[in-house]
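Late entry, magnesium ion complex.
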Amino acid sequence: MTHEYTLEERIMRFFKEFRDEENKPKYINFIRALPEIDDHVVPIYFEDVFYFDSELAKILSDEPDNFIDVAKKIVVEILKIERPVEAASVDEDSIYISIVGESPGYSIKIRDISSKYLNKLVTIYGLLIKVSQVYSIPVKAVFQCPKCGLTQTIVRPNVLYKISRPRCSEHRNVRMDLLKEGTVFSDVQTARIQEKPDELPPGQIPRFIDIVIVYPMIDKAYPGDVVKVTGVLDLRKRGPRDIYEYDFVLRVISIESREKEAMEVVITRKEEEEFRRLAGEPGFYDKLIRSIAPSIYGYRDVKEAILLSLIGGEDRELRDGTRIRGKIHLLLVGDPGVAKSQLLKYAAYIAPKGIYTSGRGSTAAGLTAAVIKEAGGGMSLEAGAVVLADMGICAIDEIDKMRNEDRVALHEAMEQMTVSISKGGIVATLNARTTIIAAANPVDGVYNPYKTLKDNINLPITLLSRFDLIRLMRDELRSDLDIKLTEHMLKARESEEPYEDTFSPEFMRKFIAYARRLRVSMTREAFEKLQQYFINLRASASQQEETLSIPITPRQFEALIRLAEASAKAHLRRFVSVEDADIAINQMNLFLGQLALNLETGTIDSTLITAGVSARRASKYGVVASKLKELQIERGNKAVPEEELIARIVRDTTLKDTVEIRRIIDKLKIEGVIMEPQPGFYKLVRDI
Ligand code: ADP
Ligand code: MG
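Prediction complete; structure with ligand written out below:
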């Protein structure tokens, strides 16, 4: 006949007999040292239990509360034998049993939490989005009757249990008072964890679960951290007294902060070999670019900028401890309906850890972080999108609409890679090692090329200058482009086949994760190429009398290095080559060219940096537009014949060259500033 062990016996056997690889009694040794250990934490490794006694592991998974209660008692018993003197100072309530590792059957997704796991030991991974301040609750409360002095002790079975004031057994109508002496308090913190962005099915709202953490596990993780939490799934009542509805709550047994990037995407040896093989094929880099939002026509350069931003350069720590960011921040500015939002969504979709949000932020915490007053009293610190996307990519659409608090905090996030908050008694610095890909709409609805960039977007210049690249996306009226665009849009909708010659989003996500992890170093040739370009840029910038609104500073040189490094990674090169330098320079030229570089004279035009056309040219365009407006008013708002317009300009202004005037009229037509309702007649559509 086999003897049925009791739970006490099983745990006792496990503690006494389990031996580690060195054949040492691991748990006996641990308990022996307990009086000297802070917080009296006894870690129990799930693996050990499972290996030693699978039946016991099952009890631990199914009845964790029971297991832990008994385990504490056994620890005290063992201590009495092993350390008889010190045992007196370690009482059962002060022992904390922490379960390390996880029960394979009960390692679940937040989305899968259900009543079937109630009171079981479950492990979940998620993003910590909010933590409360620490507060205190009695674990063992001593009450006393104010009339007769009778005392009564109530032990809280668990942290969620609410102790209410008992009535005296002698005087039934008298409520007893809490006696601070004798009552044992414990520190508690509540927090919320949410599904990780990469776990989230497309188009779904992230699910979350509140967790309750008890000392000594409090303050082990911060908002924005990816955490692994093991605990007991429990319920918390919601709604009024007679309504039996509950929310799930996890009573935490152990919580660990995870190294973020490493765990997000697993790449096998075979996949790595495949990446290497493909990277050696001609046209690979262009195929990567094409694979960014294939349904969107054109914008090769913008897509290239997105690819480089998704990969990023090297984050570095200098010898003096300064951190230098390798993240490439990208801003798309442009007319409505030019697919900015679509590109951003796609970027977040294929990023290994990507979050798409609007400037307003999707939660109360906005883009960065907020201190929030809880309904039940107390304050919580909640992480916003840029913190949640730590070590990943945050795509911020309509960034011009962000809240003022975020505007300040974003400056810090983009350069220092942290978010600091100090409010309502909470002072914290959260990590935000996040790449920002943002989009902004112009103030006037459409981009006005005759105004400065600064005046076109509602963002402070200090923030604009933190973007490595700013890209203008204009909706130019060109029928030849429109034909191709609409054909492409039709094909994107009708065809069942995958886009021609592009990589799948899954491939892109893995590849980007892989490329990000590569370490690259600069070659002398590539460096000199970037250096020469930068020196020329500075020289031409300094020739300008007026101050530039995006000054050419060493920031641009850093941006060039980051871009070149990202290009090397995209090509899976270990060294940054001259070709990478060229790619970086081309991107920088496109940025400055659209916004700054006077392509006609080859110099940087100070007003161009802020405008898009030189002051000289801007004034000419302005002249043509204002003369057209003048004539249009004179003619009772009717279209103006071309000859009349040209004659008026020649008569009244310094613009005398009719060929040039015609060229300006054509350009204004493309820009959508004027229209030609009938051949040779013009009307002004909007002011410039
Ligand atoms: P924005 O955010 O710039 O205002 P959206 O991303 O909302 O613009 O795009 C508006 C719509 O126009 C989307 O459905 C988008 O797919 C379509 N669209 C705009 N430009 C293109 C393009 N070049 N190729 C394909 N579709 C486009
Ligand atoms: Mg949009």
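Confidence is low (pLDDT under 50) at residues 545-549, 597-616. Will revisit in the morning.
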